[in-house]
Specification:
Elements: E1 4-10, H1 16-32, E2 38-42, H2 50-59, E3 64-69, H3 76-92, E4 99-102, H4 110-126, E5 136-142, H5 148-165, E6 169-174, H6 182-190, E7 196-201, H7 208-223, E8 228-231, H8 239-254, H9 303-309
Parallel strand pairs: 1-2, 1-3, 3-4, 5-6, 5-7, 7-8
């Protein structure tokens, strides 16, 4: 008889607080599956790495792993990097009956929208001033990727929140890789004439990028003193987020674990990304697995800075076809404010 366990696969960060928040996700999800062992691991920087988490499950007698990506959208990390690590681990396992099943990603989900709404409303309700929603612009900030399907999901999320909450306008920008980046996005938004701009990072956890988004917001706010800028919190462990993770794990057993491949640039020709179709499924993070966070020996290694906003230095990631767009990562320094 098989013994089942749950594995949460994260990206990893050089920020110790982000790592601690991810560990809290393991604890919260463990509360939903009290009869199953739950472990976690990261693709890069932080420890434990994914293989270590899988080893811990195997050491507890687990031979059926329900793996879920601890990332918001199905871009390259979910489609290729994590999938490759899981496939390789299963192939290398001495037990030929050892099975890993991979849940579909969180992606655009009604429960996640309610978690996002809660973070946005918290920021609005905590404001010292009273500005009507129809005089407020919502800026949703995505992580940014060279996968247009994931970037498009941020636009859909923005529209659902903008329309559902009743803001006067909605815009999107990204922390890196694609365009518009945060600074030009906020500069554009500031010229639209709204009295208030709510900046919402659609991120699971804190880290270098969230801190950078807030810092850039402060810089732009100083340039436009007549506009009130509110910084909403990221998703973190909102109960609806945990609900979504739980649903993804349950979805494996019900067959609800297939990704949407219709707009996947690796499997279909997508306008502008035709050269990416058919690229091999492989992880690009082996050289930074478990190298440590800021406080655990990472030293002055600056890989996260460049990795977070370019992805095009030594990872062999397919380049964004418009990296040199006037508002893109090739032209605008994401740290400039």
């Amino acid at each position: 008889m098989r013994k089942t366990g749950v594995m949460i696969c994260g990206h990893g960060s050089r920020d110790d607080r982000a790592v601690a928040e991810f560990a809290n996700l393991q604890a919260r999800l463990g509360e939903r599956f009290p009869d199953l062992p739950v472990e976690y691991g990261f693709l890069e920087f932080a420890t434990p790495i994914i293989r270590t988490g899988l080893d811990k499950l195997a050491a507890q007698g687990v031979d059926h792993v329900l793996a879920v990506a601890g990332m918001l959208l199905s871009a390259g990390h979910v489609k290729n990097d994590i999938a490759s690590v899981l496939n390789q681990y299963q192939a290398d396992h001495p037990n030929p009956d050892f099975l890993i099943e991979y849940a579909r990603p969180l992606d655009v989900d009604a429960k996640m929208m309610y978690a996002a709404e809660a973070r946005i409303r918290e920021a609005v309700e905590a404001a010292d001033t009273d500005v009507p929603l129809d005089e407020t612009l919502l800026m949703v900030v995505g992580r940014g990727t060279s996968d247009p399907d994931a970037n498009g999901s941020i636009s859909k999320i923005c529209r659902m929140l903008w329309e559902g909450i009743g803001f006067g306008w909605g815009e999107v920008c990204y922390s890196g890789v694609t365009f518009p980046l945060v600074a030009p996005g906020l500069e554009h938004a500031a010229r639209l004439g709204y009295r208030r701009i709510v900046v919402f990072p659609y991120f699971l956890f804190t880290g270098v990028l969230v801190k950078r988004i807030y810092a850039i917001t402060d810089g732009i706010a100083a340039q436009y003193p007549d506009i009130e800028f509110l910084k909403a919190g990221y998703l973190n462990d909102h109960p609806k987020v945990i609900d979504t993770f739980e649903a993804r794990v349950h979805g494996i057993s019900t067959g609800d674990n297939a990704m949407n491949c219709q707009l996947c640039k690796y499997r279909e020709q997508v306008v502008g990304f035709e050269a990416h179709q058919g690229l091999p499924q492989m992880s690009h993070h082996h050289h930074v697995e478990g190298i440590g966070t800021n406080e655990s020996g990472g030293g002055d290694h600056n890989h996260e800075h460049s990795h977070e906003h370019s992805h095009e230095h030594d990872h062999d990631h397919p380049p964004h076809p418009h990296a040199e767009h006037p508002h893109g990562p090739g032209k605008r320094n994401p740290e400039a404010v």
